[in-house]
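User: Assemble these into one structure.

Assistant: Restating your components, then the assembled model:
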Amino acid sequence: MELKCKCGSTCISTAEEILIKAKNTFNPCKNCLKPSIKKFTPISKQISLNSFDSQFERCLCGKRHLDLVMAHVLKLMIRENLQSKNATLRNACAPLITPAYPLQASPYLGENSLIVLSPKMNQKCAEKIMEEVPEVKAVIKGESQNVVGLKDSSYNPHVYETLAGCDMRCDIMNTPKGPICVHKDQSEIHIEFPSHKSAKITSTSLFIKKNFHNMDFTVIDATSGPGTLGIFSLMAGASKVIFNDLWKPATHMTALNLEVNGFKVDFFNEKLEKCMIACGKQFKVYNLDIRNLNSVLDEKFDLCIIDPFPGVNPKEFEDAAKKLSKKVLLI
Ligand SMILES: C[S@@+](CC[C@H](N)C(=O)[O-])C[C@H]1O[C@@H](n2cnc3c(N)ncnc32)[C@H](O)[C@@H]1O
Ligand SMILES: [Zn+2]
Ligand SMILES: [Zn+2]
C-alpha cells in the first residue's frame, strides 16, 4: 500500500522515519527563549497584538514556544472578532501537535507541527492563520468535547470541518513491545492524547500475557478505530488479527497504520467488496457493524477486543463479541 497523504504532501511516513524525526523535534535549542505568558491573563494585556508577525520571538533555530504560536493564533482570532479582546491562552483553541508523544515540558514548534481546533473558527481566519503562522499545518472547526465518528449504528456520524491545510497527524503510542505510530485524519477520527502509559494498551498487554503466554493466539479488534490495539496484538505475537470498524474512515486509517508500522498491506480494496477494506499476511480489515461481523468470519477467534466510545452501552457489543471469540476484553 502506498504511504501517500490525500493532500499529496509528505504527512505520512513509516514508523521508523517518524521515530527518528520525532527525537528532539520539540526540544528548544540553547538559544530558544521561554516566554512568560500567563495563561489566565488576557493576551492583549501581555503582548501588543501589533507586534505579532511570523518572525515575532522566533529563535534563529526556527522554533517558537507553543504559547507564542497559540498567542499568534489568538491574535488573528481577536482581529477577526472570533474571540473577545479579553481572550486568554486558556480559551484560545485546542492545540494538537504532530507527531504527538508524551512530553516532559511544553514543546517548541517548527513548521507544520500543529493543528488547531476551535468551534469559533471561520474560513477567513483559518486562511489567515495558514498564511501567517508557519507552525500550523491545519485549522479545524469543531468542539473538542464532541466525539468524532460514529458512536454506534443508531447514531448519526459527526465530523469536524477542516477549513484550511491538511488535518493528517500522528500519535506515537508507547507499548511494552515498542512504539506504534497511529496516523489520524483529525477531522474524521476521535482525538486521543498519547500518555506515558496508555491504559488500553496496558489492559490488552496484561490480558494477552495472562491468557496466551507462549501460545499461538488469534484476535479480533472489533471496534478498531485507527487500529492501535490490533496492531499491538500483532506486535505481541498474535498469528492472525481481524480489524473491524463501522466507521469507514477508521478502517482506512487502520490499513494505513498497519503499513506504517511494518505490517504490509497486500491488497487495498477501494470498492469494499464483501465489506473488506484491506488484507495482508496475518490480517484482514472489515467495515461492518460488530453485530454482523459473524457473516464474514468462519472460525472462532481466541480473543475479541471491544472498545466502545464512552457513553455507549457495551452490552450488545459484548453479546456480539461472545459469538465471535472464546474470550472478550472490554476496554
Ligand atoms: C473508542 S473508539 C476505538 C478506539 C480504538 N480501539 C483505538 O485504540 O484507537 C470506538 C470505535 O467504535 C466504532 N464503532 C462504533 N459503533 C460500532 C459498531 N456498531 N460496530 C463496530 N464498530 C463500531 C467507532 O467507529 C470507533 O472507531
Ligand atoms: Zn496531508
Ligand atoms: Zn532555538
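Residues 172-325 form a domain with the Rossmann fold fold (CATH 3.40.50.150).
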